[in-house]
């Protein structure tokens, strides 16, 4: 049996319903056996996360608890060097059969930033890319991605075949929400209820994360 595994990497500072709906909708659409949420330890492209890796991991664990096929993969948190997606893909690939399908799920914003990723041109050797359309994203793909899109994108996502190498675009239920907005709300002492699962909110409150600014 060919396994179909999705991966959604992120800082998850904190995890929210935009991430979770994206993961779940992709899982349904592509009949994935599993979608792994992979928290990054030291994201190469951005500022230090506001809360620790342990807390971000714990929040993702709370969020996916009892929600198959969503799972958590903490391999990036055990690495000394920055969290490069290519390393994660190579390590996952070494655990899968050669014809198993791997789907890297990215929001549109993350996809547009691809040309700055470490060894980005090798990503498609290991997986397909599923790009989530995100309502708050800028529209145009950067020039550096034009050739790749022309060569690798498929118009019918269901036509993706083989272990990897193609790009498909997926419309998820639009949720104009980002972790940045949530951190801002919390800093202002406002509620983020219903924007994150209740279990995540309870974890934030119990551990005094993201305190309101004085
Ligand atoms: P921040 O605001 O801190 O940058 P974020 O909400 O964008 O965080 P990340 O952890 O950086 O979350 O994102 C992980 C992945 O999830 C990225 O590929 C991102 O594009 C995608 N993503 C985040 N929010 C949404 C959303 N509302 N809808 C679709 N995809 C999303």
Automatic annotation (TrEMBL):
A GO biological-process term: NAD+ biosynthetic process
Entries under Gene3D superfamilies matching the protein: HUPs
Catalytic activity: nicotinate beta-D-ribonucleotide + ATP + H(+) = deamido-NAD(+) + diphosphate
Keyword NAD belongs to the record: yes
Keywords recorded for this protein, A-Z: ATP-binding, NAD, Nucleotide-binding, Nucleotidyltransferase, Pyridine nucleotide biosynthesis, Transferase
Pathway the protein contributes to: Cofactor biosynthesis; NAD(+) biosynthesis; deamido-NAD(+) from nicotinate D-ribonucleotide: step 1/1
GO molecular function: ATP binding; nicotinate-nucleotide adenylyltransferase activity
Domain Cytidyltransferase-like: from-to ranges: 7-185
Enzyme Commission code(s) on record: 2.7.7.18
Transmembrane segments: none
HAMAP family, per database record: NaMN_adenylyltr
Physiological role: Catalyzes the reversible adenylation of nicotinate mononucleotide (NaMN) to nicotinic acid adenine dinucleotide (NaAD).
UniProt name for this protein: Probable nicotinate-nucleotide adenylyltransferase
Organism: Pseudomonas flexibilis
């Amino acid at each position: 049996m060919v396994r179909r595994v999705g991966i959604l990497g992120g800082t998850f500072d904190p995890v929210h319903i935009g991430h979770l709906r994206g993961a779940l909708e992709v899982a349904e659409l592509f009949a994935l056996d599993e979608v792994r949420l992979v928290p990054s330890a030291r994201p190469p492209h951005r500022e230090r996360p506001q809360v620790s890796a342990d807390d971000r991991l714990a929040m993702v664990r709370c969020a996916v608890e009892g929600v198959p096929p969503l799972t958590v993969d903490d391999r990036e948190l055990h690495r000394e060097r920055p969290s490069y997606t290519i390393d994660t893909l190579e390590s996952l690939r070494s655990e899968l059969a050669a014809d198993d399908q791997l789907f890297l799920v990215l929001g549109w914003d993350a996809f547009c930033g691809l040309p700055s990723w470490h060894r980005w041109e090798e990503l498609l050797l290991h997986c397909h890319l599923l790009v989530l359309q995100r309502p708050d994203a800028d529209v145009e793909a950067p020039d550096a991605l034009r050739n790749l899109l022309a060569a690798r994108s498929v118009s019918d996502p269901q036509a993706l075949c083989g272990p990897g190498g193609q790009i498909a675009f997926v419309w998820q239920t639009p949720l104009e929400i980002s972790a940045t907005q949530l951190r801002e709300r919390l800093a202002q002492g406002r509620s983020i209820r219903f924007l994150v699962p209740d279990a995540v909110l309870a974890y934030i409150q119990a551990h005094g994360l993201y305190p309101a600014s004085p």
